[in-house]
Design a protein that fits this description.
CATH class: Alpha Beta
CATH architecture: Alpha-Beta Complex
Structural class: alpha/beta
Shape: globular
Helix content: 25-40%
CATH superfamily: Spore Coat Polysaccharide Biosynthesis Protein SpsA, Chain A
Largest sheet: 7 strands, mixed
Number of domains: 1
Radius of gyration: 17 Å
């Protein structure tokens, strides 16, 4: 039986980039994996939805008005679970993250080594990021490492993958952002996290919604709320998505959307 991977993209006014991101998503990298694309339209006022449909999005969920990235990611997790995803992948719609590297991101889940993975820019390549964003990333990642008692390198990554069980239990306690609190939530519940090196490219269109003031007024309180919340450890099914015939994994994969990553 095939496993279903749903790649979801939170999007707010990303008509200039979302089409290319969707086209780069690998669809046929294993004969036992079925890939679908879900767009969470966070109240866009441009042609984001139209462009996404034309590019091949399978599902689109639209908010009447902008709710925030945290709310969009929450909806992506919930919708992926409802639609039967065995694994869900989140990737930003702005083109900064390499959609073609999604097979690398989910490999540890297929191997039974992790339940939740994050694409790490600082373990891979990170060119062109502005200094204030880099410093902010260092600070919040260091804070997460302290709270988790586990060293991580890129706590703000916009490219992540979730097992079905982690989809079921993941919680995001605020609407502004998700990056810090969802990792704290899942790791505290016993889910295994692993970072995967990725090739990051700075967005060439649009603007980031992230502001220093927003972090001070929204993210810090959310981190505090998450840490103070009682958590029950989950009995994690560590081999739920183990995929057989992994011998050819990555041997000749060139990050081309037409490549077959696994051999039948």
């Amino acid at each position: 039986m095939k496993q279903q991977v749903i790649v979801f993209l939170p999007a707010f006014n990303e008509e200039a980039s979302i089409g290319e991101v969707i086209k780069e998503i690998p669809r046929n990298f294993h004969y036992l994996v079925d890939v679908k694309v879900l767009v969470i339209d966070d109240g866009s006022t441009d042609n984001t939805v139209k462009v996404a449909k034309k590019a091949g999005a399978d599902y689109i969920v639209s908010f009447e008005k902008n709710k925030g990235l945290g709310a969009a990611v929450r909806a992506g997790l919930e919708e992926s679970y409802k639609r039967g995803a065995d694994i869900a992948v989140m990737i930003d719609a702005d083109g900064e993250y390499p959609a073609c590297e999604i097979p690398d991101l989910i490999k540890p889940i297929f191997l039974g080594e992790a339940d939740y993975t994050m694409g790490s820019r600082f373990l891979g390549t990170i060119n062109g990021m502005k200094l204030h964003r880099r410093l902010g990333n260092y600070f919040f990642t260091f804070l997460q490492s302290i709270l988790l008692k586990k060293w991580i390198y890129d706590g703000q990554s916009g490219m992540r993958a979730f097992s079905r069980q982690s989809l079921e239990y993941a919680e995001i306690v605020h609407d502004y952002n998700y990056a810090q609190v969802i990792t704290l939530n899942l790791v505290r519940k016993g889910f295994r996290v692993k970072e995967i090196p990725i090739n990051y490219r700075v967005r060439s269109t649009g603007d980031s919604f992230i502001t220093f003031k927003g972090y001070l007024t929204s993210v810090f309180p959310a981190i505090w709320k998450e840490i103070k919340k009682p958590i029950k450890t989950v009995n994690v099914q560590v081999d739920a998505h183990v995929l057989h015939n992994m011998e050819a994994y990555g041997a000749s994969y060139s990050h081309n959307e037409n490549d077959i990553l696994f051999a039948k």
